[in-house]
Amino acid sequence: MGEGEPGITIVGGGLVGALLATLLAQRGFAVDVFERRPDPREAGYAGGRSINLALAERGLHGLRLAGLTEEIMRLAVMMRGRMVHHRDGHTELLRYGRDDSEVIWSISRGRLNIALIDAAERAGARFHFGRRLLSAAFGNGVTMQFHDDGADTAHEHGCAFAIGADGAGSALRAAMNARHPLGERVEQLGHGYKELEVPALPDFPASSLPSAAAAALARGERFALEPNALHIWPRGHYMCIALPNAEGSFTVTLFLPNAGDPSFATVATPAAARALFEHDFADAVPLIPELEKDFGENPVGVLATLYLDRWHLGGHALLVGDAAHAIVPFHGQGMNCGFEDAVELAELLDAHRDDIAWTFAEFERRRRPNAEAIAKMALENYVEMRDSVADAGFLLRRELGRLLAERHPGRFVPRYSMVTFTRMPYAQAFARGAIQDTLLRELTTGRERLDEIPLDRADALVRERLTPLETQ
Ligand code: E0Q
């Protein structure tokens, strides 16, 4: 650490840790990042599995500030909407936004992380890979012990304060909690997930290529499904989704309850998984040639929401991203929200270098209501995804919502759009969403069709209850 130069230690070099390191290094801070995993540029990422993420406006903004949009967007696949796969095999595209200016982007987690680590290093941050946090003591500064996997030894690292960007299972959070309880509460969703793969067409085993896919391959196409969509197979209490990868493959995620039928308890073997798919996701079966192998080898992921009463320990340590507020993935906002954390914290630290305790408290004050709002909205979106596709009341409300959004642009904005295409605080999107939902329920109660709804009354209510949004 240079003389008089404020040094910042970040635990965790994942997406949020690496973006935060970039933004802080760009602002002149000396940044050290300790990461438990090996360097993904040497080791390959997470065993080579291609996990993808949905990048939306909030996340894009973080990448813009880091100067990374051009590099990242070259490898991003546009998703215009949800491609719903119905039981009878027919599909329907439900657009996310008004046009192609309102879309989301599927990107590879591994590639994004590598780009962020490179950017952070270019800005001057120092990464230390293969370093697992063993303990942290908070007193006069912070003293941390890391296990160094390369040397197979433990070593000490001292710093003025530490920032934990080490994910839902944060080791720094455990150490902070042991020193002073953070009021931690984990709410299990009771559902898990499993990842499977739809290969790129040229990678299909020749023997199992379905005829439509063979024709697409012959035309020189790489994608076995429509590339520019988030595919979804909603089935009541469970569902499948698939996001495109730039190379032409798709990562499929099966979401199932942990108990009941079907669940990860009853669908416990690769053979049972095939039977489930043949029964419920029949059109996807020919596209997943290694269904049994993927199901047998990939772990069941846990889905939970993490709530903390406190995110920081005075001016000693602060948690950001999933370490502070892990959420369920059904709005595709975990990374986007974590990137907003990184931007907010970098700007606060830049402006208030001299009072770290105040800065940490202020960060928590600004971000916690927003983290709580997106946690709730992400949970609500699971129910909407799985069940509401066929619900008549829901469909009428959605139809009326679309009409009011058209009639009142910038005033009646679908909640999904406020979350996904704007940077307004999540808590505000939640509050405006609640007003809009009440309004839609009032106007549709006892009615079955759009043409039964008094539009003059609807327009008056919109103007009365919703202020115009400030445009950014
Ligand atoms: C998005 C993009 C895992 C996951 C990620 C997502 C989304 C969904 C359903 C899921 C929400 C949506 N969504 O389509 O409404 O927008 O990221 Cl399951």
Structure report:
The chain has about 475 residues and is of the alpha/beta class. The protein has 3 domains: about 10-75 and about 105-185 and about 310-380, 3-Layer(bba) Sandwich (FAD/NAD(P)-binding domain); about 190-300, no CATH class; about 390-465, no CATH class. The protein contains 16 helices and 19 strands. It has helices at about 15-25, 40-45, 55-65, 70-75, 110-120, 170-180, 210-220, 270-280, 290-295, 320-325, 335-350, 355-385, 390-405, 415-420, 425-445, 455-465; strands at about 5-10, 30-35, 50-55, 75-80, 80-85, 90-95, 105-110, 125-130, 130-140, 140-150, 155-160, 160-165, 185-200, 230-235, 240-245, 250-255, 300-305, 310-315, 315-320. A 7-stranded mixed beta sheet has the order 6-5-14-15-16-13-17, sandwiched between helices. A hairpin with a 4-residue loop joins strand 10 and strand 11. The radius of gyration is 23 Å and the shape is globular. The structure holds ligand E0Q. The site of ligand E0Q has 11 residues, from helix 12.
